[in-house]
Amino acid sequence: MGRTHQRTYSARRWTRPAWLAVGLLALSALLLALIARDELGGAALARGDGAASAWMLALLGVAFAALALAVARESWALHRRVDQQTRVEEALRESEEKYRVLFSRSADGTLILEGDRFIECNDAAVKMFGCDSRDQLLRTHPWEVSPETQSDGRASHDKANEMIAIALREGTHRFEWDHRRVHGEVFPVEVLLTAIPVGGGHVLYSILRDITERKRIERDRERLIQKLEAQNAELERFTYTVSHDLKSPLITINGYLGILRDDVARGDAGAIQEDMRRMGAAADKMVGLLGDLLELSRIGRLVGVSRPVPLAELVREAVELVGGQIAQRGVEIVVGEDPPILFGDRPRLLEVVQNLIDNAVKYAGDQAAPRIEIGCRPSPEGPVCYVRDNGVGIEPAYFEKVFGLFEQLDPTLEGTGIGLALVKRIVEVHGGRIWVESEGLGKGATFCFRLPLAPAQGADAARDAKHAEPEDATTAAS
User: Fold this and answer.
1) Half-sphere exposure of 182 toward its Cβ, with a 13 Å CA cutoff?
2) 120, 129, 187, 233: which has the fewest C-beta neighbours closer than 10 Å?
3) Phi (first) and psi of residue 133, to 5 degrees
4) Could you give the CA distance from residue 97 to residue 262 in angstroms, rounded to a whole number?
5) Which pLDDT belongs to residue 476?
6) Which among 368, 359, 366, 356 has a CA at the least distance from the CA of 332?
7) What is the pLDDT of residue 195?
8) Residues of the chain with pLDDT under 50
9) SS (H, E, C) the chain
10) What pLDDT, on the 0 to 100 scale, is given for residue 164?
11) Rounded Cα gap, residues 137 and 123, in angstroms
């Protein structure tokens, strides 16, 4: 319909030149016809100049005919040029309409910048920046939609000037950028910036793609890679340690077999009993190591259903289980008031508290008044549970090592060195974190852990713990 309309319009526009040409042709034909019929020629002869007049009329007719043909040809050429221009204008309008549709309906945000202002934007950009209308975004200064610094620490102003310079030099430039919505939220985008020459300057055509979800996936992937690398490193240490520590009892047994053979040959009954005792102790140590390794391997696979568990209840039961060692060493147990309610598998959480108390008793050192304090303190991330002793202490260089497999700061003490590794695994499986604090040898140690709170406590409990004052009131048990 558009083309038909344009051609009709062109025909109406050039009707006058066309009709002029037709008129001239008609007049020429009429003059020639009159000459042929001698209607004018007879009158001319009567006046005595008939031959001259006839030739004059003939020449005049030919002239009119030539003029009419020239006008007709020029009119036709002009009509063709106008029709061609009309088709070009129509194609241009169709192209502009396609661009307008693509611009307005694109899922990516699109902005056009001229100087230090936005001159055009699409609906996706309005939505991306959280604006209420297109006019609101166009009234916003470009620096208002970027934070002061980018994620790499560079000032947004300096980095933007560099990106624009590259686009002006190369024509286009693709890069990642941190933008800011009108309500303050910062979000990552991928930018395709194109410099378009206009007049004596340039406008910047910017296509923005929100990559928030892609960044989240990348972070999850990086965390997974780090976790796998840590697990592989732990598996490597585990393999080395197990092969070393399990081989040690076997070497002991094998060595005493040769000694036992010699003692039997001599008939030394006392030596034989001692050899058998040492071999039995080595075998018992291997059984203990295998049992602890089996328990460690189950963590993460055999964690039961999580439920609210009061820390006070776990402490009371753990103190009873370690009561023999506590009484033997004369350790004073101090429990803080109002401990939080944890959320997790109760038997596993009991293992955590029991192992930490047992470890504190074991490393109480040679002192007249060993003391263990169990309580909770506030932190911005939520309540931190702790088991603090006044024992031998730990050098900072061993803060991470104490949680490794078969690691014992004092090899002369009983145990397999797996207790703290078990505690760390249980806490991490529950989504928590454990660490140790100490000012050095002879100044005691504090083992801290943070676990998810019970849903009933929720964020309010964590917020209360953040602002609460530590409790000083304690109760003593021995």
Assistant:
1) 16
2) 233
3) -155, 165
4) 104
5) 35
6) 368
7) 93
8) 1-15, 39-41, 43-48, 302, 458-478
9) CHHHHHHHHHHHHCHHHHHHHHHHHHHHHHHHHHHHCCHHHHHHHHHCCHHHHHHHHHHHHHHHHHHHHHHHHHHHHHHHHHHHHHHHHHHHHHHHHHHHHHHHHCCCEEEEEECCEEEEECHHHHHHCCCCCHHHHHHCCHHHHCCCECCCCCEHHHHHHHHHHHHHHHCEEEEEEEEECCCCCEEEEEEEEEEEEECCEEEEEEEEEECHHHHHHHHHHHHHHHHHHHHHHHHHHHHHHHHHHHHHHHHHHHHHHHHHHHHHHHCCHHHHHHHHHHHHHHHHHHHHHHHHHHHHHHCCCCCCCCEEEEHHHHHHHHHHHCHHHHHHHCCEEEEECCCCEEEECHHHHHHHHHHHHHHHHHCCCCCCCCEEEEEEECCCCCCEEEEEECCCCCCHHHCCHHHCCCCCCCCCCCCCCCHHHHHHHHHHHCCCEEEEECCCCCCCEEEEEECCECCCCHHHHHHHHHHCCCCCCEEEEC
10) 94
11) 10
Structure tokens at 385: 């549970």
Radius of gyration of the chain from its Cα atoms, rounded to whole angstroms: 48
Tokens read off for 345: 């598998």
Widest CA span in the chain: 181
pLDDT at position 304 = 66
Count CB atoms within 10 A of the CB of residue 13: 12
**Token pair listed for 477:** 């048990």
Residue 265 is which amino acid? A
